[in-house]
Backbone:
């Protein structure tokens, strides 16, 4: 037909539709663009916008739809899809509501599914509380979208139940088709199982989540967006561990077409994790490149700067990291608090606690927070700067007093002396008492007692403080203490002593007799002192002989040690018949020559023992009657051991 009449409108329309049905979107768009005079926007607007949408030219598709003079139902359906891809969820929600209200056909269920997907996206990415649309969750798609909305609200247990219901509905609906295999069902369930694993990960059940993630990857689903999200979540579980596995999973996030399947925040999270993985794998240049790219895309975002600072810290460039964070805080005051907290942490890591305190005190919006006050007081106490710690307490208490004064003029509703205010006053008083600042603590304790005159604990602290400063005032205040009768407690002493775990166990009366009974009744019992056992003396100890002063030293370290005499026995071996002994063997037997003098004098014993004396020092005396062989064995054992008695 076109060969006969190339400008035939109907033939051109039919050709474009055929190309679209075959998936040739580029060729179809080319036909439309080359015949713009014939195929005007009113005639071919839907087909042109659909080709641009399928080619991921979303902005062009939106312009084409908006330029059409007549908005048909088909264009409105496509308009809703385009708005969803552009993440304009409010406009998309309004478009689908209008479609559902003004159309009645067999596609109503699909429109409701798309509407629930928009609500889930708002809850997840914009943290908007979803409204109840009154949709009946009769299909697994509706149940799945409802579960995603619950995840965005943090209702994880309810979301898990919805996903389990969606899984059952999916199996039920697909099993009715005889042509659908079990593999097809598992492939369809992959996205539901992926959300289940994500909930497990959020709940801290990382092992279960990791197992389910890997099962989905083994199925090799065709949805590149699903694979990219699962791979990213596995990387977040691995963190700085199992880096080799994370590097393999990163490849799944780089698949073709991923950028068209995921939202901007999902893609941004994947890029952040790539930069962190590069840091963990010591790829400093790659980490800096990725973080710089992220910062250029989102200049106000905090994470790229924190990643750059972390990389600098790994390179021991703490000063440069702090300077980078300071520049960002100056340029973006809205994020200054989080940045300064990070800077303080770096200062603490360097050991500059005082500088860290200065940074923390510069965060005006957090100065009065109990957590900040507690941190500053702890750090100043560590540095023994008690005055600065008390100053922190004073500034926080003054802030609450000023806030209270403003509330009295009707600016806002605030209870006078709120629990936080009173808690700060009490902590300040306790801190001052602990560090001996009695006079300063008295004013705080008086303020607390005025707020609650029945607080006996505060009154006792106040009396204790006044007793060191003004004893008369302490006596006057002590009259406000309750009497002993009102404070008596009905306690069964016997039952308390006999209870399990009592540290004191009273002896039974039957075992107390004689002296023990008198001691039990006495005013003060004296604990028996254990007698020291006398040390054992050698059997051959002679009190008349002066002990060797070097007896505590090993034999080798003594001054008179000359070493073992080598070679004497070797000279006598093998010089006779087997079993025979030499004539001089008896001369070498020390047991037969007990009266021979020692080879060297003992230090300190010359005055008591003469050179010809037969008295042997205690260290070398042997028990009488012992065989000669046993004497030799005992001498061998004693060599090298510590002597003494």
Residues:
């Amino acid at each position: 037909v076109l060969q006969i009449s190339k400008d035939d409108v109907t033939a051109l329309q039919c050709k474009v539709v055929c190309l679209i049905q075959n998936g040739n979107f580029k060729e179809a768009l080319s036909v439309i663009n080359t015949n713009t005079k014939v195929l005007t926007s009113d005639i071919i607007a839907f087909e042109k916008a659909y080709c641009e949408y399928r080619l991921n030219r979303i902005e062009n598709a939106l312009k084409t739809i908006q330029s059409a003079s007549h908005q048909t139902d088909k264009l409105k359906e496509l308009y809703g899809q385009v708005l969803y891809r552009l993440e304009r969820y409010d406009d998309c929600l309004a478009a689908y509501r209008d479609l559902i209200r003004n159309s009645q056909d067999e596609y109503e269920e699909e429109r409701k599914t798309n509407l629930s997907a928009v609500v889930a996206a708002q809850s997840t990415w914009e943290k908007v509380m979803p409204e109840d649309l009154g949709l009946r969750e009769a299909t697994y798609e509706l149940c799945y979208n409802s579960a995603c909305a619950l995840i965005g609200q943090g209702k994880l247990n309810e979301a898990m139940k919805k996903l389990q219901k969606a899984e059952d509905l999916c199996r039920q609906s697909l099993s009715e088709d005889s042509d659908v295999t079990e593999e097809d069902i598992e492939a369809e369930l992959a996205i539901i199982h992926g959300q289940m694993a994500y909930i497990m990960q959020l709940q801290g059940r990382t092992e279960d989540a990791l197992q389910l993630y890997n099962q989905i990857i083994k199925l090799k689903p065709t949805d590149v967006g699903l694979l990219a999200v699962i791979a990213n979540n596995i990387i977040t579980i691995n963190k700085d561990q199992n880096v080799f596995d994370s590097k393999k999973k990163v490849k799944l996030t780089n698949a073709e077409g991923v950028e068209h399947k995921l939202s901007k925040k999902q893609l941004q999270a994947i890029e952040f994790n790539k930069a962190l993985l590069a840091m963990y794998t010591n790829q400093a240049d790659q980490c800096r490149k990725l973080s710089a790219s992220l910062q250029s895309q989102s200049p106000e975002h905090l994470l790229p700067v924190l990643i750059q600072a972390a990389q600098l810290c790994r390179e021991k460039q703490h000063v440069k990291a702090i300077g980078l964070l300071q520049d960002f805080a100056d340029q973006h005051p809205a994020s200054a608090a989080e940045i300064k907290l990070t800077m303080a942490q770096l200062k603490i890591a360097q050991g500059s606690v005082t500088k860290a305190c200065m940074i923390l005190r510069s965060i005006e919006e957090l100065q009065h927070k109990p957590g900040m006050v507690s941190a500053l007081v702890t750090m100043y106490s560590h540095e023994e700067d008690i005055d600065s710690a008390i100053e922190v307490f004073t500034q926080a208490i003054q802030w609450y007093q000023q806030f209270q004064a403003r509330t009295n003029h009707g600016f806002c509703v605030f209870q006078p002396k709120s629990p936080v205010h009173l808690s700060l006053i009490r902590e300040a008083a306790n801190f001052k008492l602990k560090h001996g600042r009695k006079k300063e603590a008295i004013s705080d304790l008086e303020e607390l007692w005025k707020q609650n005159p029945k607080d006996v604990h505060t009154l006792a602290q106040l009396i204790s403080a006044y007793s060191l400063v003004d004893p008369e005032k302490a006596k006057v205040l002590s009259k406000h203490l309750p009497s002993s009768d009102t404070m008596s407690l009905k306690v069964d002493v016997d039952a308390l002593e006999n209870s399990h775990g009592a540290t004191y166990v009273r002896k039974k009366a039957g075992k107390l007799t004689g002296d023990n009974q008198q001691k039990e009744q006495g005013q003060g019992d004296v604990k028996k002192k254990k007698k020291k056992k006398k040390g054992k003396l050698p059997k051959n100890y002679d009190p008349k002989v002066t002990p060797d002063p070097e007896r505590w030293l090993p034999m080798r370290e003594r001054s008179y040690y000359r070493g073992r005499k080598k070679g004497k026995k070797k000279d006598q071996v093998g010089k006779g018949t087997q079993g025979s002994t030499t004539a001089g063997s008896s001369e070498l037997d020390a047991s037969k020559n007990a009266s021979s003098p020692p080879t060297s004098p003992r230090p300190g014993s010359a005055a008591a023992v003469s050179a010809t004396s037969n008295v042997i020092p205690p260290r070398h005396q042997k028990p009488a009657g012992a065989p000669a062989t046993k004497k030799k064995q005992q001498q061998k054992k004693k060599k090298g051991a510590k002597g003494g008695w």
Residues 381-407+416-480 form a domain with the Serine Threonine Protein Phosphatase 5, Tetratricopeptide repeat fold (CATH 1.25.40). Residues 221 and 313 are 40 Å apart (CA to CA). The radius of gyration is 46 Å. The longest helix spans residues 386-408.
